[in-house]
Design a protein that fits this description.
Helix content: 40-55%
Number of strands: 16
CATH superfamily of the domain at 70-253: Biosynthetic peptidoglycan transglycosylase-like
Radius of gyration: 38 Å
Oligomer: single chain
CATH architecture of the domain at 70-253: Orthogonal Bundle
Strand content: 5-15%
CATH topology of the domain at 70-253: Penicillin binding protein transpeptidase fold
Length: 691
């Protein structure tokens, strides 16, 4: 009996020793595995905290005008920009020992494990804020043991590499609050229409209760359940010493005003402009589409809210609702090239095609200032004369004859000056100048003025028969307006990434590409379309809007069978307007032919209201003299009309007009007719033009 008992005792000791060895081995393996996990986590380093965020677009005064539209509202704010009451409420209800543990609350884990074992299923959670943040960043929200293991691993990595405040900031910026609002800033704006740093205690405790079940505890889903959860949170805050009982009772009684609307819903402000900005981000700054949509960028644009509003209202006012006419409009600061307003069509929802930057249309006579600027560089002056009459141009290279026509087939049938030719938009004068300079010259000039659209080397190019974009013409006129300095259309001033780091900032380069003297002379010539002193065989082309002007403008209108343009400027602002049909249908109604001019003058007057009235200042190297506008000669006291005209110094006329001096005997008609036949104009000596 004693031998049997001794045998059993030794066998028990043997088993216990084996169990101890196995236990120690398993413990060692577990310890090594745990150490290995820690070492592996450390080797991997800090996990990236970047999450999808909405990209925001700002106007030039810092107002948010739009955001990337992916159905989710995500805005990142720093911990210091979040209401302390919201932080306290969140910690109190979600993880009261947050600042004491290393990522895991073992007491809560044990309790949850017992509950799961009893239910034989995953029924209760014990996740800390760190664990929830890990899940939000890296994992799906399925309740499986595999997911819990990975969640624990990511939690270790977070806790090893980031501070508690960094993790808490990330959690509050990624947690889902319902209705597409991710993060406390989006939730604050959606539910209460305010930023996260402005929440009251009552508002903060309502929001803190939502993440447990957005479809249950949202005040929009059930105000009753929302208030019940708010009361639980307030009681926990009192218990943990965050607030007093009096503060809790006051928060419960607080009347909440629920907005229930995202600050930027439906179609954003200035949608055509924002489309153009997105294209610039992609094609100019080479930012990929995913980053643009989900990268949490902050895009600081050049848009002027007031001018954009005026542009849209003006277009709506002056284009009949019954008309199918479309519109493209760009307004720019000529000194910087910054686009202040853009309209690409009458209804973005019906047609997102941006006619301001995408449509290529014939500019008509708005091309003439570019032509005449080049003529000034080649020795022409505002007083250079050529004959305005029906002219057929014949070419030696077997090209067909070309006969340009003036509007309504009106001609001076006499010599006119370049200044008057521009003011009256004489087509014959323009084609003669174009052919004299050489057909390739205007093509090169267009490139110098920033026009990238293809130009055809044909006689009619002087009359704007090669298509251009509205934004190109606005930029070309800006170069003349600023005295000849190169600018490019600028939509974006600065771009910041989700960390607030500047990844792009526009540099202002004032590279002179035109001669300032000729640029100013050209500008002053362009004021002539509004000056009735230049009336001749027809009225100046800007005469219909003169009565609406309260300041000096320079500009040029243009029209083809299918296109109507008006482009003009002051020293502060350049605006280009195109109107026409998308399919190139002829514009036949008289009222529709006036849309471009009416939109332009009324926009300019409204946009510049309250701004100082600035005139165009003559630079050194220019001379202003009074001339007879009909012949370009120096005016005398006897001339009935005198107009101050500017010239590049040394090119001003030296001969006085004698047509109106009393006592000067007029030549007999037969002698004038003889001289007229014998006299061969200078330009016909260079080219064999027929007429």
């Amino acid at each position: 009996m004693e031998l049997m008992t001794d045998h059993r005792f030794r066998r028990t000791i043997k088993y216990l020793r084996a169990l101890l060895i196995i236990g120690l081995f398993c413990l060692s393996i577990g310890l090594l595995l745990f150490i290995g996990i820690l070492v592996y986590a450390k080797i991997l380093g800090p996990p990236p905290l970047a999450v999808p965020q909405s990209t925001l677009y700002f106007s030039d005064d810092g107002t948010v005008i739009g955001e990337s539209n992916n159905g989710e509202k995500r805005y990142w704010v720093e911990l210091e920009e979040i209401s302390p009451k919201l932080i306290e409420a969140t910690i109190a209800i979600e993880d009261k020992t947050y600042y004491k543990h290393n990522g895991f609350d073992y007491k809560r884990i044990a309790g949850a494990a017992l509950a799961d074992i009893k239910a034989r299923a995953k029924v209760q959670g014990a996740s800390t804020i760190s664990q929830q943040y890990a899940r939000n960043l890296f994992l799906e929200h399925e309740k499986t043991w595999k997911r819990k293991f990975l969640e624990a691993f990511y939690t270790i990595r977070l806790e090893m590499n980031y501070t508690k405040d960094q993790i808490l900031e990330g959690y509050l910026n990624t947690i889902y609050y319902g209705k597409g609002a991710y993060g406390i800033q989006a939730a604050s704006q959606y539910y209460f229409g305010k930023d996260a740093n402005s929440l009251s205690l009552g508002e903060a405790t309502v929001l803190a209760g939502i993440p447990k079940g957005p479809s249950i505890y949202s005040p929009l889903a059930s105000l009753e359940r929302s208030k019940q959860r708010q009361e639980i949170i307030l009681n926990v805050m009192v218990k943990n010493g965050f607030i007093t009982r009096e503060e809790a009772n006051a928060a419960l009684r607080e009347k909440l005003v629920i907005i229930g609307k995202h600050s930027l819903d439906s179609v954003d402000f200035a949608p055509y402009f924002q489309d153009a900005v997105r294209q610039a981000l992609k094609n100019v700054l080479n930012i990929d589409e995913r980053t643009i949509e989900l990268g949490g960028l902050k895009i600081y644009t050049t848009l002027d809210l007031e001018q954009q509003k005026i542009a849209e209202e003006t277009i709506e006012k002056y284009i009949s609702s019954d008309s199918e006419i479309q519109v493209g409009m760009v307004s720019m600061d000529p000194k910087t090239g910054q686009v202040k307003a853009m309209v690409g069509g009458r209804d973005y929802v019906k047609s997102p095609f941006n006619r301001a930057v995408q449509a290529v249309r014939q500019p008509g006579s708005t091309m003439k200032p570019l032509l005449y600027y080049t003529a000034l560089e080649q020795g022409f002056t505002p007083s250079s004369t050529m004959r305005s009459e029906v002219t057929t141009f014949k070419f030696q290279d077997n090209r067909p004859e070309y006969t340009p026509h003036n509007f309504n087939n009106l001609y001076a049938n006499d010599d006119i000056t370049m200044a008057q030719a521009l003011a009256l938009s004489d087509n014959v004068y323009a084609v003669k100048t174009h052919l004299f300079l050489g057909e390739e010259t205007l093509v090169e000039t267009a490139k110098k003025f920033g026009i990238s659209s293809k130009m055809a080397k044909v006689p009619s190019l002087a009359l704007g028969t090669s298509g251009v974009r509205v934004i190109e013409m606005a930029n070309a006129y800006s170069i003349i307006a600023n005295g000849g300095k190169k600018v490019t259309p600028t939509l974006i001033k600065k771009v910041e990434n989700h960390k607030g780091e500047v990844i792009y900032e526009k540099e202002q380069i004032n590279e002179p590409i035109l001669r300032p003297e000729e640029a100013f002379v050209m500008t002053h010539m362009m004021t002539g379309i509004f000056d009735r002193k230049l009336n001749g065989y027809s009225n100046v082309t800007g005469s219909t809007v003169v009565n609406n002007m309260t300041r000096m403008y320079a500009g040029k209108s243009g029209s083809t069978e299918t296109d109507s343009w008006m482009i003009g400027y002051t020293p502060q602002l350049v605006t280009a307007v195109w109107t026409g049909f998308d399919k190139g249908k002829p514009i036949q109604l008289s009222s529709e032919k006036t849309y471009a001019k009416n939109i332009w003058i009324n926009f300019m007057e409204s946009a510049l209201e309250g701004e100082p009235v600035k005139t165009f200042k003559a630079p050194k190297g220019t001379v202003g003299v009074y001339v007879n506008p009909q012949n370009g000669l120096l005016a005398t006291e006897d001339c009935p009309v005198k107009r101050l005209t500017y010239f590049v110094a040394g090119t001003e006329p030296t001969e006085y007009c004698i047509d109106h001096i009393e006592g000067v005997k007029e030549e007999p008609e037969h002698k004038k007719e003889k001289n007229k036949k014998e006299k061969i104009p200078w330009y016909k000596k260079l080219f064999k033009w027929g007429s």
